[in-house]
Amino acid sequence: MFGNLTSIELCAGGGGQALGVEKAGFQHLAVVELNKHAAQTLRDNRPEWNVVEEDLKTWSASDFKGVDLLAAGLPCPPFSKAGKQLGDQDERNLFPAAFRIIKECRPSAIMIENVRGLLDAVFLDFRSQFQKQLKRIGYESDWKLFNASDFGVPQLRPRVVFVAMKKDLFPHFEWPEPTVTKRTTVGKSLYPLMSSCGWKGAKEWAKNADEIAPTLVGGSFKHGGPDLGPTRAKRAWAELGVNAISLANEPPPPDYVGMPRLTVEMCAVLQGFPTSWKFSGKKTNAYRQVGNAFPPPVAEAVALKIKEAFASSAQLQLAI
After folding, report:
1. What distance in Å separates the CA atoms of residue 288 and residue 267, rounded to the nearest whole number?
2. Is the pLDDT reported for residue 88 higher than 60?
3. Are 171 and 297 in contact, with CB atoms under 8 Å apart?
4. Whole-number Å distance between alpha carbons of 278 and 312
5. DSSP code, position 85
6. Which residues make Cβ contacts (< 8 Å) with residue 125, sequence separation at least 6?
7. Residue 320 pLDDT
8. Which of 99, 222, 304, 312 is the Cys-Cys partner for 172 at CB 3.0 to 4.6 Å?
9. Which of 47-61, 204-218, 293-307 has the lowest mean pLDDT?
């Protein structure tokens, strides 16, 4: 245990959390994702990953007993302020399935991300019950709210992260601190792509877009098209000189006049993905993967702290 660190990923989507966990030094034994477009994205970018295109409600993790880390990006709609916040009454709530899988494989550590709404008072009992369930099988845990812009992502993206570890490991875990003091902006991040087709107005646009982006809204995999969110969000994008009514297929041409639209690739940069990461499916399906992603730099920061806890525990055992 804790030599070559291993992980399994649940509800991997377009790969944001999986990419961050990989960068922190974990080897994925299985990456589970039901959506066919997202699963293809994972295969296209990481042919060596064991991508499992199955429903989490029926998938078994019994073949992965003793894995170091179980990471998950469980569906957000049950807890999102944009929805009805039905919590455990929502059929999309996969916390029960995740708990079953945890019991099957007994990972040393657990990392689950979700929307800020999960920390609302209405879900206090839900959170407490989940922690009590894990405590009964030997885990200590905590919740933490992070903003992606504190980790070099040019976007206001608050996300809740849940970390649980076996009782002997948890005292060694510390939450990560922000990795940047100066936030990256939309203009600086997107200028290379905005100017890639020779748009003459790219430099001036980037100068005026020198702020961090509003939160990208991906919608569910059943609803929501390739636009940047509701009316309020569109107004915020307009202040940055972005037409948020829809997405473009290509960057602006040389003589383009007006507010440019973002491409899927630009949105991915605003989520902290490397430009080499490509998304499968047509524009709507690709954008949903991007808009629902957990930014890789935030996932990496938390996973590194989990890795440090493993190392600290191992050093203590050697000293005894």
Report:
1. 10
2. no
3. no
4. 36
5. -
6. none
7. 55
8. 312
9. 204-218
Q: At what angle do helices 124-136 and 95-105 cross, to 10 degrees?
A: 10
Task: Tell me if 149 sits within 8 A of 156, measured CB to CB.
Answer: yes
- 82 has pLDDT over 70: no
Whether residue 18 contacts residue 9, with contact meaning beta carbons closer than 8 Å, is answered with yes
Cα atoms in the Cβ-side hemisphere of radius 13 Å centred on 288? 21
d(CA 115, CA 80): 6
High-pLDDT (> 90) share of the chain, % = 76
Residue 105 is a catalytic residue: no
Tokens (6 digits) for 53 = 């295109």
pLDDT tens, position by position, 226-251: 678 778 888 999 999 999 999 999 99
Residue 5: name the closest of 78, 87, 68 by CA. 68
Copy the structure tokens of residue 5.
């660190």
Residue 319 confidence class, pLDDT cut points 50, 70, 90: low
Residue 87 has pLDDT above 50, yes or no: no
Q: What angle do CA 52, 72, 48 make, to 5 degrees?
A: 40
CA–CA separation, 215 and 237 (whole Å) = 10
CA 167 from chain centre, in angstroms, equals 26
Q: Strand 109-115's sheet: what is its strand order? A: 51-52, 27-32, 6-10, 69-72, 109-115, 158-166, 139-147
State both tokens at 234: 């569109």
- Of the listed ranges 52-61, 136-145, 160-169, 307-316, the least confidently predicted one is 307-316
Catalytic pick among 76, 105, 197, 267? 76
Model confidence at 85, pLDDT cuts 50, 70, 90, reads very low
Alpha-helix residue ranges (DSSP H) falling in 171-225:
186-194, 202-208
| Distance between CA atoms of residues 18 and 71, nearest Å | 8
- DSSP 8-class letter at 145: E
Instruction: Assign 265 to helix, strand or coil.
Output: helix
Tokens in use for 136?
């009964």
d(CA 142, CA 149): 22
